Amino acid sequence: MKFILDEKVQYLKGVGPSRAKILARMGILTVRDLIEHYPRDYSDRRNVTKIADALSGRKATICGAVKISSVVPLNMKLSVFKAAVEDPSGIMWVEFFRKANPYHKHDIFSSLKATFEKGNRVFIFGKVEEEFGLKKIVPDDYELVVKEGEEKAFRKVVPVYPLTEGLSQKWMREAVFGALKNAEKDLNDILAERTLKKYGLTGYKEALNGIHFPDDMECVQKSRERLAFDEFLVLHAALAVSKKGTENIRKRQEYGVKKDILTPFREKLKFEFTRAQKKAINEIFRDLQSKKPMNRLLMGDVGSGKTVVALCAMLLAAENGYQSAMLAPTEILAEQHALTINRMLDGLPVRTALLTSGEPKAKKQREKLLNEIGDGKVDFVVGTHALLEKSVVFGDLSLIVIDEQHRFGVLQRASLTQKAGTPDVLLTTATPIPRTLSMTLYGDMEASVIDELPPNRQAVETLHLDETSAYEFAKKQMKSGRQVFIVYPLVEESDKRELKSAVAEARALSKSEFSGYRVGLLHGQMSTKEKDGIMTEFRDARIDVLITTTVIEVGIDIPNATLMIIEHADRFGLATLHQLRGRVGRGKEKSWCVLLGEPKTEEAKKRIEIMTATNSGFDIAEEDLVLRGPGEFLGTAQHGIPVFKAGNIVKDGRLIEAAKGLAAEMIAGDPDLKSPENEGLKKAVLKTHGPRIRLANIG
Ligand code: ADP
Ligand code: MG
Q1: What dotted CATH number matches 1-45+163-186?
Q2: How far is the CA of 452 from the centre of ligand 2 (A)?
Q3: Which ligand is closest in space to the CA of residue 304?
Q4: Does 2.40.50.140 match the CATH number of domain 47-155?
Q5: What is residue 489's three-state secondary structure?
Q6: Is the N or the C terminus of the chain less surrounded, counting Cβ atoms within 10 Å?
Q7: CA of 693 to the centre of ligand 2 (A)
Q8: Which residue's CA is the closest to the ligand 1 atom numbered 5?
Q9: Where are the domains positioned within the chain?
Q10: Percent over 70 (pLDDT), the chain
Q11: Residue 579: nearest ligand to its CA?
Q12: Tell me: domain 461-614, CATH 3.40.50.300, correct?
């Protein structure tokens, strides 16, 4: 027998092919999708207001008998249907405007006329208005009383659904109601009675009915919690299963601390590691020396010194004769990493090579490098997406570092890990992931946090100024020998028009405001060589002010740059603004970030406020998550983040924790979910996470 939940919505009574098409636009394909299309809000229509007490400007539910009704044409296109409704306390008008062609045969008011026939009792919900002493209601919804006490959408709390054009609340309500009724016998609970008791949860069927057609708001809350609990439970069960699957994997590489590279490296280093860096290095080394492949996320705010921590891991690999790869999201960053690494390792027996789409350029040289990577002659391969290409084959790749991992999709990260046998993987990110989120995203991953900045760093001060003051500020900084970034929003690297503005601006500024200074220009459409040249000049302080785009967003490290001016700051998201700001404040000198532009939306205003108020990447990430929601915060498609319909990763920390605990318990007792009691959970795990869970396991 077929499972009704998996049937196409089209076959439900009252849906049909054309409505099914509209529903598909909202991602509703099956009966299950429709049942899981939860209300976005509720309209409380339990209390009926006396007409005499209905206040103008407020929403109210009234109930009364129809006295009279009529249709009044307003013009050739628009008519209004008016009815007067009376209850013992008073009388009120209700109006329905409709586009009406008077020559059209079909009477578009026929159903209204039937409902509002003289003497009928009706319920109306809507906003009350008062004009010349006459009360009127603008109807959101209405219903004819067929049998007292059996109203469908009145005298109760009514769901309000997310809709799209072509659907009405009333229609959606009935469709969901029908779907629930039809699928009733298939709504099996994945939790046993005693589990429900233990966690104080509502039954599944009850919860579904309760979220759509609740008795009161408390019922909504309990129902939502139950459905969210299931979502988190299923995810954590999936993660636990996949973790079990990889638990027995033993890696081939073995690390011993030989001290022949790491020790001289440390002696040469110009600074001491911070306490947090030391802790992270210890954690990473412990992972490397264990028999299981490392799967660790290194989180730390911009400028906290993640590169050198990752480098230590790579050096340990090199000491033991293994190859490492470091993947960076942009060419400029990859180049910078290669440069820094080369500089720090000067004199040590380690070979580092850079591989990007532009570098090495000459075919012969590229082939030679690819061969050397294949032969294992290169110890560290630093590069961009170019590393993922098929032609890149490693001799003995054992350690993979993915810098700014949030910039890469799940598949990209996987395609690099597949180039090694059982690699140790270290992911770094400066977009700290709030705890509840990381628990659901990386439930199976270890994390190290660098929660302090190197000493002598001064907090970057952020100001919202006008352009003139900003340029004055810039000149002052340059006069005292410091360097300045000016960033233009170039959201898409290919956006030619926007690019022109940065290019034109650079030219104009170099002739006017900054005529006495050395102005440089850097953008994504320049060749690798050109970019490289400009970055080197800026690093060597042969450029005073660098006019650029978000190509310098991540990672770039120029300690002498003390001012970051962001043009049209209102157009950037919080994560980008914080990353851009992180380009300054990397040396001993006090640094500033100046935001230009007038925010036009409330959200943009809030972003600027947050930026001027806090320097903590963690706080910013939390705010960002609240402002944009988890989907956009992480970029759903790119990150393969699970979608929750009832659950809210930002607010449901306690539920997530509980669900995670239960999942662990269930999997421990029944690792393959074989027992009949766990059948439902197993099905749900496979259905929801089957396609992506192996990937989730690696990041
Ligand atoms: P991020 O965490 O943003 O990737 P980087 O690794 O680029 O930060 O480091 C930022 C700067 O801080 C670099 O110039 C780096 O050399 C320096 N740095 C890193 N660790 C320390 C330390 N313990 N003491 C002083 N400077 C440090
Ligand atoms: Mg970095």
Answers
A1: 1.10.150
A2: 14
A3: 1
A4: yes
A5: coil
A6: N
A7: 28
A8: 305
A9: 1-45+163-186, 47-155, 262-288+305-429, 461-614
A10: 91
A11: 1
A12: yes
> Please, which residues bridge with residue 62 across strands?
124
Q: Is there a cis peptide before residue 360, judged by omega within 30 degrees of 0?
A: yes
Atom 20 of ligand 1: nearest residue by CA position: 305
301: β partners: none
Distance CA 86, CA 105 (A): 32
Q: Could you give the CA distance from residue 605 to residue 527 in angstroms, rounded to a whole number?
A: 36
Taking CA atoms only, the protein residue closest to ligand 1 atom 12 is: 305
Give residue-wise pLDDT tens across range 290-333: 999 998 989 888 888 999 999 999 999 999 999 999 999 888 78
Ligand 1, residues at Cβ distance < 6 Å: 271-274, 277, 300, 302-308, 430, 454, 555, 557, 559, 586
CA atoms within 13 Å, Cβ hemisphere of 653: 6
Would you say the CATH fold of 461-614 matches that of 262-288+305-429?
yes
Q: What is the pTM of this model?
A: 0.67
Q: What is the pLDDT of residues 91-125, one digit of tens each?
A: 999 999 988 766 677 788 888 999 999 999 999 99
Residue 551 C-alpha to ligand 2 middle, in angstroms? 14
Q: 404: CA distance to ligand 2 center in Å?
A: 7
CATH 3.40.50.300 correct for 262-288+305-429: yes
The number of C-alpha atoms within 13 Å of 455 and in the hemisphere containing its C-beta is: 6
The residue nearest atom 14 of ligand 1, judged by CA position, is: 557
pLDDT of residue 695: 32
Question: For 5, phi and psi rounded to 5 degrees?
Answer: -55, -30
Q: H/E/C letters for each residue in 656-694?
A: HHHHHHHHHHHHHHCCCCCCHHHHHHHHHHHHHHCCCHH
State whether residue 115 is helix, strand or coil. Answer: helix
Cα–Cα distance measured from residue 555 to residue 580, given in angstroms and rounded to the nearest whole number? 9
Instruction: Report the nearest-CA residue for atom 17 of ligand 1.
Output: 305
